[in-house]
């Protein structure tokens, strides 16, 4: 067999391994999924009317439409913590060191983690999207092309954050440290335009919300699903996603190739 089929076979094996782990131990995924679902229900049913009035909406349904794209991005940020924990666990238990000694495609180990995490993220987005639809979220005249673009955007952003999370997992000494180091991926959506427009924030705080990756991705997804103005956010969202994906890939690759004794 040539090197490409061998790499594909080994990567598929590692992907199957990670999916089996996720199926056998679903508690981590469910716990991470609980955060965005609870925030969605909290902000809609407890703060919905007040928040809707604050952003100039008419009622709670207006705020549901506004908040769902941000909650979907928070779902990605929370779910990738599982990838950081899983990679760190493999590093601590020595299984990755064992894989290094085997006659397999070296990159298949981390690629399996990445692809498995992205598939879990997409499944989590379906669950959160179903909850949002159940409580009243509806897209506005979204075309098939816009739905396809939205799917491509969330997949690209999920891939980017997963590579960053894999790097965090490899750099952490244990699973607890990996989970803690990945917490900013949950916190950043809270200080973005996920819950209120950035232009309603205090002037000193507004740049923090505007110049971070989550805000342009959220605004782009919001525009695709609700028909609002996207403007330059589309290019910024793609640019941030590609930059983070390349950064995370290079970081993870460097850590994977590093001597285990230096870890």
From TrEMBL:
| Protein location | Cell membrane; Membrane
Upper classification of the organism? Bacteria, Bacillati, Actinomycetota, Actinomycetes, Kitasatosporales
Q: Which organism is it from?
A: Streptomyces pakalii
Query: Is Coiled coil there in the keyword field?
Result: no
Q: Which UniProt keywords apply?
A: Antibiotic resistance, Cell membrane, Membrane, Transmembrane, Transmembrane helix, Transport
Q: Which residues cross the membrane?
A: 25-48, 63-88, 109-135, 147-166, 178-196, 234-251
InterPro entries for the chain: ABC2_TM, ABC2_TM_bact-type, ABC_2_transport, Nod_factor_ABC_transporter
| Location (main, coarse) | membrane
What topology does the record note for this protein and the membrane? Multi-pass membrane protein
Ranges for domain ABC transmembrane type-2 come to: 27-259
Protein's UniProt name: Transport permease protein
Question: What family does the entry list?
Answer: Belongs to the ABC-2 integral membrane protein family.
């Amino acid at each position: 067999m040539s090197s490409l089929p061998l790499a594909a076979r080994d990567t598929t094996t590692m992907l199957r391994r990670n999916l089996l782990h996720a199926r056998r131990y679903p508690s981590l995924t469910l716990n991470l999924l609980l955060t965005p679902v609870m925030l969605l229900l909290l902000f809609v049913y407890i703060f919905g009317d007040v928040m809707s009035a604050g952003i100039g909406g008419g009622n709670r349904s207006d705020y549901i439409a506004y908040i769902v794209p941000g909650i979907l991005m928070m779902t990605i940020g929370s779910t990738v913590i599982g990838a950081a924990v899983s990679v760190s666990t493999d590093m601590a238990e020595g299984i990755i060191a064992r894989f290094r000694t085997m006659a397999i495609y070296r990159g298949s180990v981390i690629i399996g983690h990445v692809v498995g995490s992205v598939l879990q993220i997409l499944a989590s987005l379906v669950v959160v999207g179903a909850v949002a639809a159940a409580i009243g979220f509806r897209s506005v005249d979204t075309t098939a092309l816009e739905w396809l673009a939205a799917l491509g955007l969330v997949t690209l952003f999920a891939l980017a954050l997963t590579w960053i999370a894999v790097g965090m997992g490899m750099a952490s000494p244990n699973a607890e440290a990996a989970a803690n180091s990945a917490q900013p991926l949950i916190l950043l959506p809270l200080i973005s335009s996920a819950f209120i427009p950035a232009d309603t924030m205090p002037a000193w705080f507004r740049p923090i919300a505007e110049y971070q990756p989550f805000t342009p991705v959220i605004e782009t997804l919001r525009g695709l699903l609700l028909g609002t103005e996207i403007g330059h956010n589309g290019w910024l969202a793609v640019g941030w996603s590609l930059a983070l994906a390349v950064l995370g890939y290079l970081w993870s690759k460097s850590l994977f190739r590093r001597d285990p004794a230096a870890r």
